[in-house]
Amino acid sequence: MRMPIQPASLRQFVLLSFCMALIPLSVLLWQSNSSLSDVSRFAIAEAESSVANVRRTENMQKLVNDIERSVLQFSILKTDALSKLAATHLDNYQQNLSSVCLNLAQPLLCQQQQAQLQLLLDNYLTENNEELSPILQKIRLQQLQLTQAIWSMLEQRLQQQQAYAEEAQSQLAWQTVALVVLTLLLVLWASARITAPVKKLDTMIRSIGQPSHHFPHDKVDGPRELTELGEQLRWLASRLQQLEALRLILLRHASHELKTPLSSIREGCALLAEQLVGPLTPQQMEVVTLLNGSADRLSVLTEQLLDYNKLLQQAKPELSWHDSDKLLQECFNDHALSLQQREQQIELDCQLPRIYTDGMLFRRILDNLINNAQAYGAEGSKVWVSLRPHDKYLILDVANNGTPIPAELRAKLFEPFQRGKAQRFDAVQGSGLGLSIVADCARLLGGIAEIVDVNYADVCIQVRLPLVEESV
């Protein structure tokens, strides 16, 4: 039974990719060294050949002078020593001529020189100076021609050497480009093998936070650590979906199961308080009042919890134009009774006649801020509400007098179920969700909520939202 092939670990894959990327570079270094070695050997061989040809040319020029001198001397003195000396010079010249003519591309000039040498060799023992002078002059002239031919050959071979070096350089440049491109392709392939699963992991992580819970079904292919992380994210997404389903079921049942008995309790407390079922003693009336207050508090807390759950499920705001004064006055009217009970007054400063926002989310922000200012504000004081533009933002300030909030607690109060140390002055005990709802609504609208310091109030909660100017 064959075992399935396990994907390589991230470290092994990185090392393998590094080694694969080094292969073209190694080939490039080997090709560069080989080309340089070939050019160097060719240059050395040409240099040695050129030096040898130059030396032969100089030696032949010297031998021509020696031949002419020894032949002329022999024609006058007629000694055996001069005869042998002339023959030796002629023999040496012929050997050098044969070596030069092997590389010289002018065979006719070499044949003519060979013929003149043979003519001199046949006649120098018997002829006089006047008869030998034309032959010697012809040898000297042809030697000059040979010297020029040799220098021309050396120049041609130098040009060939330069052309060979340029060709090798061009070939090496193309090989360098090809191998560098191949290395780049290998690097891109290796990086794609790593970034592709990372992108899938990023998609998985983002899908976990989306309300639609549309988790991708494709498995992560790549190094072992990334595939294992993908499976763990898949398990986490499944677990979060189960918990979300349980939360929704719990809240749905809680809203149904709590509202019915709660309504019955409130109706029963109302009947008892109105004494429709019979007179109550003062002690009984006090108990009924406590029960009625507790039922009202439980009803408010339940509504806040369900409202916060509904807010968490809202994924995208529905933006439209709204009349600012109308939106604000509707909120003030809903809170008019609670404000009158504590003798609080609204002081409004509205500098934006129309705003582009989600009416439901903006109303939730305003309701919670007014309720917070009414509950924690000083009795008989003002509640300042300001709606104004600032740069590219819409600024909503709701301020009141009361107990200032310490700087170290301000950010924490916008977290769910977090309450401050200040005392509420209304009959409802807070759940710690009001400012959290404000922060979440502001976040959905693309803004933020924070507590700021102002010179006209003790506490000011500011909501900063993107400002959209109405086109005329």
Low-confidence region ranges: 1-6
Distance between the termini: 77 Å
Largest sheet: 5 strands, mixed
| Rg calc | 54 Å
Which overall shape is indicated by the principal axes computed on the Cα atoms?
A: rod-shaped
Q: Approximately how much helix is present in the residues?
A: 55-70%
Catalytic activity: ATP + protein L-histidine = ADP + protein N-phospho-L-histidine
Keywords: ATP-binding, Kinase, Membrane, Nucleotide-binding, Phosphoprotein, Transferase, Transmembrane, Transmembrane helix, Two-component regulatory system
Transmembrane segments: 12-30
EC number: 2.7.13.3
What does this structure look like?
This protein folds into three domains: 180 residues; 79 residues; 149 residues, Heat Shock Protein 90. The protein is 68% helix and 9% strand. The longest helix is centred in the middle third of the chain and has 81 residues.
Relevant terms:
472 residues; alpha+beta; Heat Shock Protein 90; 3 domains; five-stranded mixed sheet; two-stranded antiparallel sheet; 68% helix; rod-shaped; disordered N terminus
SSE blueprint and pairings:
Elements: H1 10-77, H2 80-103, H3 107-123, H4 129-209, H5 224-273, H6 282-313, E1 320-323, H7 324-334, H8 336-341, E2 345-350, E3 354-357, H9 359-376, E4 382-390, E5 393-400, H10 407-410, H11 434-444, E6 448-452, E7 459-466
Parallel strand pairs: 2-4
Antiparallel strand pairs: 1-3, 4-5, 5-7, 6-7
Helix pairs in contact: 1-2, 1-4, 2-3, 3-4, 4-5, 5-6, 6-11, 7-9, 9-11
Describe this structure in a few short sentences:
The chain has 472 residues and is of the alpha+beta class. It is built from eleven helices and seven strands.
